[in-house]
Amino acid sequence: MNKIFFVKSFSACSPDIEFFGNLKLQVSDIDKTLIPVDMRRRTSLATRMAITVAKNSCIKASVQTSNLPSVFASLGGEIQITDNLLRSLNDDTELSPTQFLNSVHNTTAGYWGILNQCQAPTTALSAADDTFAMGLMEVCVQLQSYGGDCLLVCYDEIWPQYLAPPKGRIAFACSLVLSSKADGALASFTMPQIDCSTSVSFSEEHKVLAESAPAAAAIPLLLALQNKNSACLPLNIISPIWSSELTVF
Amino acid sequence: MDNNKALIPPVAVIAYSALSACGQGNMALYASLIKNQSALAPLNLFNVPFRTNVGAITQPLQGLHRNLIQYDSRNSRAALTALNDVDAGIRVAIEKVKSKYGSKRIGVVIGTSTSGLYETEEAYLELLRTNNMPADFYFVKQHAYQATARFLQVELGLSGVCYAVSTACSSGAKAIAAGQRLIANDVCDAVLVGGVDTLCRLTLRGFHSLDLIAEEPCKPLDKDRQGISIGESAALLLLEKSCSSNSSDMRLLAVGESADAYHMSTPHPEGLGAIMAMKNSMVMAGLSFEKLDYLNLHATATKINDRVESAAVYSMFSNNVKCSGTKGITGHTLGASGALETIITLLALKYQFIPGTNGLDQPEDNCKCQVVKTPIYNQNIQIAMSNSFGFGGNNASVIVGL
User: What is the pLDDT of residues B145-159, one digit of tens each?
Assistant: First the structure.
């Protein structure tokens, strides 16, 4: 019997709202009012998108952010800041300490904790094209071990196109408040598993998108939640396919 | 160990292997620890515009099979070298659990802070010179955070859960936490966990920009400490669910985690995050505080970390627990440190000794912990802890037991 978890809320963010409008997915732009001015000045597109979706999901789910565990999943993380630092290694001038601090993969997780005065555990992970699937997996085992709610944020910003084209051509972030309890939930879902039985796969359109925006691997799940479609959904684009059975209430 | 109060089932550590500046394998590490001998030396792998000592892996690293050459990086080579260490036997142990449970049931979770960044730095030199990346540059397979975890998965023919945890200096400890949870919740029957981080310019120059790098070999907990000496390591542990075949192996009991929610680079001044991680680990393991026999401190040798950590440890355990910091021997291996120091803690259990604190001459006046300067032997150690605290206020405390 596959263990069941619950979705309390979801949200998505991209500076390219029009593009996602064509996919009929509701996506918001970065909400600057959610991030204090001094933090906004220091943070990247990645962190600003991630904080926007995280805040929006928490507001929708009416959860306390001050003790909410969180999982931040991103393939490239702070890739623009890292790119800047790598370019400045060419000469012997001192690196920017602020840029260095803000280049670690758990930058967003750190700012999120400070913003919400939240001392609950937070983690930052990465798994190439399986980043969303593995982020969801990490949340599921945390919920199963500790119960309660957990925030999942999956994001990737615009990447320099000499790194791994077409990855990072489109910036996209999404988040879900997930729970071990059904109270007030929108849907239930099963622990991600490698799919053998069904032929779950991405549509060609979504596959092309997820190749450009790694976090867009969440799109089939987000669309199913938005359109209230119960289905067995793919969580990544490259075989072996991880899938989860979503049941919308 | 029979413990009804544990909130997470213990798992067996059926094999482990450490590659570090101390050399290849657990015996090389043990030899450095009992001699309390520093492996730090002046940096010569590449140039940086300042003087510093590092804990560099000096032995040759094994090359990747030509079919997997797209994964080639110093990080993956270090991981392969640790994996193939015959005495540690981790590769043989993985083959055993693979045939016992199937390749889908064996996970790989590796902590790292910079993954294959050293190679990316080389690639950028070419990019800046020619406007093009080298033809053999594969960003996702070489550089991205999961690159080494994925390489290990492919190398070992595994096909289940695979990801990297990257939470700066707590990465390796958090990967161990993830592995225990995957087994506890029946997603995996065994998980290869650990930390792999190798030297690169960005990290050294980044820490230097924060004024945290010591010129001389680091002096953890010493009143004259000047900062960190960076090291590198591949530290791998194979976790398996408890069963009759591993009943005599040492146990991972619990990992407690927390966030400081205070500052990106400075720990909470009263060590609230550190205290919470240590407390969570003891509660999750179902242990009362007096059960702890040894604590391997994070002890980076920065002014602030060591002051805050020793105060946090004192407030938790008073001066009842023997503590030491081993980064004067290995260097601070960053994302690998949580895994390397968990292995050091396992060695303390196995050989019943308390490692010393190389570099410590005169402790700070207000350090009230029971800090061990030179190794002590013939101890009775049943339960031990290893602390890891990272940038972004990300904390983890690992508890292991006999």
Answer: 999 999 999 999 999
